[in-house]
Amino acid sequence: MDKNFKALIVKETNGKFIREISTKSISDLPEGDVLINVKYSSLNYKDALSATGNKGVTRKYPHTPGIDAAGIVEESSSNLFKKGDEVLVTGYDLGQNTSGGFAEYIRVPAEWVVKLPKGLSLKESMMLGTAGFTAGLSIYKLEQSGIDRAGEVLVTGATGGVGSLALALLSKIGYNVVASTRKKEKEEYLKLLGAKLIINSDELDDKSGKPLLNRKWQGSVDTVGGNVLSTVIRSLDFRCSVASCGNVLSPELNMTLYPFILRGVNLLGINSSETPMDLRKIIWQKLAGEWKLDVLEHITTECSLEELNEKIDLILQGKITGRILINLL
Ligand SMILES: NC(=O)c1ccc[n+]([C@@H]2O[C@H](COP(=O)([O-])OP(=O)(O)OC[C@H]3O[C@@H](n4cnc5c(N)ncnc54)[C@H](OP(=O)(O)O)[C@@H]3O)[C@@H](O)[C@H]2O)c1
Fold it and tell me: Is residue 272 in contact with ligand 1, taking CB distance under 6 Å?
């Protein structure tokens, strides 16, 4: 079958990267077992890197970004899926070097595809998307390493996609969540998601050089990295953990090993895109069931493919609050 469809395409011309909505055809898509008619996608920080020519994310252009997609199977050569199935794909190579979800069609290996869990609509699955999955995976790993529910759990970059969802999920589960943000004016938003306390991210920028700081946190989801992560690790209580999932501030970590060897704290690495399918299904089941959020509408701004362009620049500037859902219906 060949057919034309709409896609956002990033082109490289004389070292500059230009984005446009254009027409592609199914035959342009890579080989794969499952052809999916995409109904919703979402914008993540990594998509903005791909859309602006970051070769660490996307090596070759022209390219269609979009690490998330949810839609309906149109063709499948795998017996795991059939025409009409509602499915979602997040991560793996989607939107990096494989044509991604900012388009009406994707074609991917069957091993990347998750059946939409009962309890979530296609739209809700993309309100969560990679950000929600990453927040869920971070919390799952924190709980496995053990967190004391009586203490305070910190979320950094709290108004961002991963941050907002980590805050809302932790609060739903019953933790006392402290939200760290650079955006003082978003206090009401953060309280609505369940923040018990809101702090300015400057408070997490300790430059004293002390190897250990006062013990404050029972756990943390960090989306920021750099000296914020270093400050968080040095402020964790005995045997507590931080799930490190982002580096919007910096990928550098300058500190001593003392928090690890004197307080027994844990640095949990989070890689959502390569999460094995068994664990992936567990996290999606939780997001659709016991962790199902009723604040998704408050976290999400919906836009069309045409309206996505300006959001890409805003997310790189850290100016997006919550999640951007892309409606391809
Ligand atoms: N490991 C994984 O599997 C995985 C998966 C998804 C995302 N990520 C990573 O997680 C991070 C967040 O992704 P996202 O999609 O949630 O992005 P996002 O929506 O842009 O959120 C990032 C938030 O970080 C804060 N921030 C931005 N720039 C900052 C800076 N220079 N200094 C301090 N804080 C800053 C802002 O929150 P405030 O203004 O509230 O402080 C911003 O909203 C990115 O690094 C992304 O690549 C990793």
Answer: yes
Predicted confidence (pLDDT) per residue in 50-62, tens digit:
999 999 999 999 9
Residue of 248, 273, 319 to test ligand 1 pocket, by largest number of atoms within 8 Å of CB: 248
Q: Which CATH number fits domain 131-269: 3.40.50.720, 3.40.50.150, 3.40.50.2300, 3.40.109.10?
A: 3.40.50.720
Nearest ligand 1 atom to alpha carbon 158? 40
Find the 160 Cα to ligand 1 centroid distance in Å.
6
pLDDT at 307: 96
Choosing from 139, 224, 252 the residue with most ligand 1 atoms within 8 A of its CB, the one to mutate for a pocket test is 224
Residue 1 confidence class, pLDDT cut points 50, 70, 90: low
* Element counts in the chain: helices (H) and strands (E): 9, 15
Span 187-227, pLDDT tens digits: 999 999 999 999 999 999 999 999 999 999 999 999 999 99
Q: Distance between CA 305 and CA 148 in Å, rounded?
A: 43
CA 141 remoteness from chain centre: 16
Q: List pLDDT tens digits, range 163-184.
A: 999 999 999 999 999 999 999 9
Question: For all residues of the chain together, what is the average pLDDT?
Answer: 97
Tokens of 180: 């760290």
Q: Domain 4-116+296-327 class?
A: alpha beta
In whole angstroms, give the CA distance from residue 226 to residue 321.
21
d(CA 49, CA 70): 21
Q: Which of 45, 198, 250 most suits a substitution to test ligand 1, by most atoms within 8 Å of the C-beta?
A: 45
Is the CB of 275 inside a 6 Å radius of any atom of ligand 1? no
Q: How many CB atoms lie within 10 A of CB 295?
A: 20
